[in-house]
Amino acid sequence: GENVGLHLPTLSVQEGDNSIINCAYSNSxxxxxxxxxxxxxxxxxxxxxxxxxxxxxxxxxxxxLLNKTVKHLSLQIAATQPGDSAxxxxxxxxxxxxxxxxxxxxTRVLVKP
Amino acid sequence: DTEVTQTPKHLVMGMTNKxxxxxxxxxxxxxxxxxxxxxxxxxxxxxxxxYEKLSINESVPSRFSPECPNSSLLNLHLHALQPEDSALYLxxxxxxxxxxxxxxxxxxxxxxxxx
Lengths: 113, 115
Fold this sequence. Notes:
The structure holds two protein chains of two kinds. By secondary structure, chain A is mostly beta strands. Chain A has no helices and ten strands.
């Protein structure tokens, strides 16, 4: 099947700094993308999403950027806090295949005090 | 309210046991999903129900049997599992068929151990 890959398996960031998590996706026909945060022992938690007709979307302290030319997705976290320590997954959806999400491999973010 | 609940939280079973995992949502979603997640791996889709009908089965072995009694409930019946089936089983739900993205909301999961 198609995969969504991540460049960095672990990201260490100083508390207060900005974090950037990158994701490469493979299906140019994917129309919807989601970032999830998963803390230890918990299910994935929705952070932010973006449709393929957009290139940027902002939430509270988070921004998702979509570059369809190079099939690249990124999540920016501003002023990273200890509570941001978790594994982050990107996911893509190809609507013609149903609402099936394909997840990337995940990036662990460690926030240093 | 974006809550999906799952029971039990933990389950230990032998290879000859029969058990069931349960999932419930009250967000009016008409699609529900089962995922399997191994340690340090992303979730892998198992089944999708839309409007209480099975719409996707990702070639899952028959020892896993899903059931959707109504639009709010989703079960996963387990029988004759293998130790390699030990994993976190996640349930999710979403709207279905809208032109906008159909965001999937996940439950906390059931941690299954097969002895």
